[in-house]
Automatic annotation (TrEMBL):
Keywords assigned by UniProt, alphabetized: Nucleus
Residue ranges of domain Reverse transcriptase in the record: 107-179
The keyword Signal belongs to this UniProt entry's keyword annotation: no
One Gene Ontology biological process: regulation of DNA-templated transcription
Superkingdom in the source lineage: Eukaryota
Record-level GO cellular component terms: nucleus
Pfam families: RVT_1
Lineage: Eukaryota, Metazoa, Chordata, Craniata, Vertebrata
Places the protein is found: Nucleus
Gene that produces this protein: F52C9.6_45
Protein name from the UniProt record: Uncharacterized transposon-derived protein F52C9.6
Organism name: Merluccius polli
Record's keyword annotation contains Nucleus: yes
Length: 371
């Protein structure tokens, strides 16, 4: 497995594997939990040195955002220089249950939620054949009903892939690790989904939680923090927040908080006053802090880590005519300049000091209240 970084050269790759652990659920007695914990720590010492860079499920210091950012950055650079990317999102048939235990203990690793990338359908088919053969050898099988291909290209391109005798479907969008990726490489539809999901949460909880008089404000805000906010902001590390996005996120946020405060738009109370009264930070302030925290994490990431490598990669080539899209990296760098006054040439030095960077983010000021 390999991935070459830099654009367009980072597209000359056989595959990139993004893995999320999908283990079963086991109910244990208290002594069983203690024994399980001891066993897990001993096994982890054996497994961790063998875990490859593409594995992020239940690994210390890693998570789905690593894989989402890596894929997003590759697609971003490819689109900028009009380089096609052929993708195949692989789903394995009950991956955990299908792995023979003898094989599992032998390799100590297995994969699910995989993305294969290549610059042509021929290279992608070769990678898929190799991957399918490795899965078969480990007792696993690709689910052709759930796996789909997609092509990032400025023009419509057919991508005909096969697993055995079956032709795999090609789609214009695919939800990977909870984030919607499209054949145009845009995240606007994903942000729309996030806002829609948050609105659906509020509608579901409206009568039983949000406006229920018997429920304390503290309990309502706890539900707001634990359910509504994650539904709205999942994957925000990838966002380029435009003024339109900002307005829509604020509207979704305040729709919930006004009801908790038992107010409406007709009361003409400013958003900042409501937030201060409820004791919550503006949601976009939290998003900005989180985005810049992720920026600092990328800057400090050691060589060899995929998110850090694609972050530092400098794509080269010839851009098509027209105004280029704002890259996520450029947006967050601009955010650090606008909100913290740190110029780009000093960003690596300042963000490279974890404690200094964390203290700056804690002091991040509120934006002026638009109303």
């Amino acid at each position: 497995m390999s991935i070459l970084l830099g654009a367009p050269k980072f597209l000359e790759t056989g595959l990139i594997v993004n893995t999320v652990y999908g283990g079963g659920i086991t109910l244990l007695s208290l002594p069983g939990k203690v024994y399980s914990g001891v066993l897990e720590r001993r096994v982890r010492r054996i497994v961790e040195p063998r875990i490859q860079e593409e594995q992020c499920g239940l690994c210390p210091g890693r998570g789905t955002v690593d894989q989402l950012y890596t894929l997003c950055r590759i697609l971003e650079g490819a689109w900028e220089f009009a380089q096609p990317v052929q993708m195949y999102f692989v789903d394995l048939e009950k991956a955990f249950d299908r792995v023979p235990r003898g094989v599992l203990w032998g390799v100590l690793l297995f994969a699910d939620d995989v993305v294969l990338l290549a610059s042509s359908d021929r290279d992608l088919q070769l990678s898929l054949d190799q991957f399918a053969a490795e899965c078969k050898a480990a007792g696993m099988r690709i689910s052709t009903s759930k796996s789909e291909s997609m092509v990032l290209n400025r023009k419509r391109v057919e991508c005909t892939l096969r697993v055995g005798d079956e032709i795999l479907p090609q789609v214009e969008e695919f939800k990977y690790l909870g984030v919607l990726f499209t054949s145009e490489g845009r995240l606007e539809r994903e942000i729309d989904r996030r806002i829609g999901a948050a609105s659906a949460v509020m509608r579901t909880l409206h009568g039983s939680v949000v406006v229920k008089k018997e429920l304390s404000r503290k309990a309502k805000l706890s539900i707001y923090q634990s359910i509504f906010v994650p539904a709205l902001t999942y994957g925000h590390e990838l966002w380029v927040v435009t003024e339109t996005t900002r307005s829509r996120v604020q509207a979704a946020e305040m729709s919930f908080l006004r009801r908790v405060a038992r107010l409406s738009l007709r009361d003409r109370v400013k958003s900042s006053v409501i937030q201060e009264g409820l004791g919550v930070d503006p949601l976009l302030l939290r998003v900005e802090r989180s985005q810049m925290r992720w920026l600092g994490h990328l800057i400090r990431m050691p060589p060899g880590r995929l998110p850090g490598e694609v972050f530092r990669a400098c794509p080269t080539g010839r851009r098509p005519r027209g105004r280029p899209r704002t890259r996520c990296r450029d947006y967050v760098s601009w955010l650090a300049w606008e909100r913290l006054g740190i110029p780009r040439e000093e960003l690596d030095e300042v963000a490279g000091e974890r404690e200094v960077w964390a203290s700056l983010l804690r002091l991040l000021p509120l934006r002026p209240d638009p109303g």
